[in-house]
Design a protein that fits this description.
The protein has a single domain, classed as Rossmann fold. It has 12 helices and 9 strands.
Length: 413
């Protein structure tokens, strides 16, 4: 089994609620910039939100909550499922990329709702699991929780979390069956019969403890405890994700300060990865630092050394909960010195650009010189296709307007 780890204080996205209460590879996803729904036409309230990557996409995100049975483990898994819909009956959705999202310690399937809706509006199917450490779930199961028990990282079982996300990634037909029988109002769309999951385009994303889940699921090497043997001070790469995940998004992740990980944990990474970290990203549990959250990027090989492309979005002033928005910073009683809206918009824009570029197969050759900021931004605004613009935006530090290097930087290798 996996060694217990000094996890960061996770994204407790649902803590407030808990306390108070297979298809072949598909044609490219090419949502046009001009197809933004009417409700998204309002003028953005902040300059950084003017990026087309931060604005809602051409589809309407529909949401369903249900429970799936993992027969192999005898476990019921609560999920939230989102997918793109269109009011145009002639739209053929076809096979879509799937993103599996893993919440932080104590959270649940409602974590990062706005980010999930954003991805779905741009053509992605997104599924969230409620892991067994969820405070809301534990209360529902009758557990009497104390402040100490809610903050105890021993409740987090990394191996079980990975099994949750792998189960979802390997169950596309179960997810499609839920969509097919959904009959809630405007969510029932005529083109549902054309919707499918492209099993060759499945990614995973997660925040905090979910970021560790993400790294393990994309087979970052970690220290292991073998049955019947004492713990070994070594790093072993096992096929935890069975190569089902083709990309990873690590939001507020872990580095070598986590005892599961070491200097060589990322040297056999096989899939593209985007890392988001911030200069004020510390938590009340665990020993992660803003610097250690950069390690997944800094210690990966990158393309120049024969590895997959890896990116880092470094946001000055970002706190542990700010990537999700004000709801989580308020819950964690954080007082960021920067506009939380900027951090959330940066998270939306950068992760969408990464997922679009990955799903289009356009992440190769990211070491090529970037275009000028003016050319890149004009491409993103006027080319008519966000997927076409995404690779240039990822190359260019000027990918998001009104953000200077004192606010956020983008690195790629």
């Amino acid at each position: 089994m996996l060694l217990g780890s000094a996890l960061s204080l996770a994204c407790l996205a649902s803590l407030a609620r808990a306390q108070g209460t297979t298809a072949p590879s598909a044609p490219p996803v090419k949502p046009a910039v001009q197809q933004v729904p009417a409700q998204a036409q309002a003028q953005p309230s902040s300059p950084w939100e003017q990026s087309p990557f931060a604005q809602p996409g051409p589809f309407v995100a529909h949401t369903l909550r249900d429970t799936l049975r993992d027969e192999a483990r005898g476990k019921d898994l609560q999920i939230t499922l989102r997918w793109p819909t269109s009011t145009d009956a002639n739209t053929k959705l076809g096979p879509r990329p799937l993103v599996v999202f893993s919440h932080g310690m104590g959270g649940d399937r409602e974590a990062f709702t706005k980010l999930s809706e954003h991805w779905a509006s741009h053509g992605f199917i997104v599924v969230h699991a409620t892991h067994s450490d969820s405070i809301k779930l534990r209360r529902e199961q009758g557990e009497k929780l104390t402040r100490e028990s809610m903050r105890d990282v021993r409740n987090v079982d990394p191996a079980d979390r990975v099994a949750d996300v792998v189960f979802l990634a390997q169950s596309p037909q179960l997810l499609l069956d839920l969509i097919a029988k959904d009959e809630t109002g405007a969510g029932k769309v005529a083109q549902a019969s054309t919707l499918a999951i492209d099993i060759n385009r499945i990614a995973i994303a997660g925040h905090s403890a979910g970021a560790l889940t993400t790294q393990l699921a994309i087979n970052v090497k970690a220290r292991m405890r073998e049955p019947g043997a004492r713990a070994r001070d070594m790093l072993a790469r096992t096929e935890r994700g069975n190569e089902v995940f083709k990309a990873g998004v690590v939001i507020s992740g872990q580095g070598t300060t986590n005892r599961m990980l070491g200097e060589e944990s990322w040297n056999e990474l096989r899939v593209p990865m985007l890392v988001l970290a911030g200069s004020e990203d510390v938590a009340g549990v665990g020993n992660e630092t803003p610097e250690s959250r950069r390690h997944p990027f800094e210690k990966s090989r990158g393309e120049a050394a024969g590895g997959p492309p890896v990116g880092l979005v470094w946001i000055v002033g970002a706190t542990h909960g700010s990537y999700q928005g004000k709801d989580l910073t308020n819950l964690l009683r954080e007082d960021p010195a920067v506009d939380v809206g900027m951090v959330a918009a940066t998270t939306r824009a950068s992760t969408l650009a990464f997922l679009l570029a990955w799903s289009e197969g356009a992440l190769k050759g990211m070491q090529t010189p970037p275009a000028s900021p003016e050319a890149t931004w004009q491409n993103a605004q006027q080319a008519g296709s966000l997927p076409q613009a995404a690779p240039n935006v990822l190359r260019d530090p000027a990918w998001l307007p009104a953000l200077s290097e004192e606010q956020a930087t983008l690195q790629w290798k």
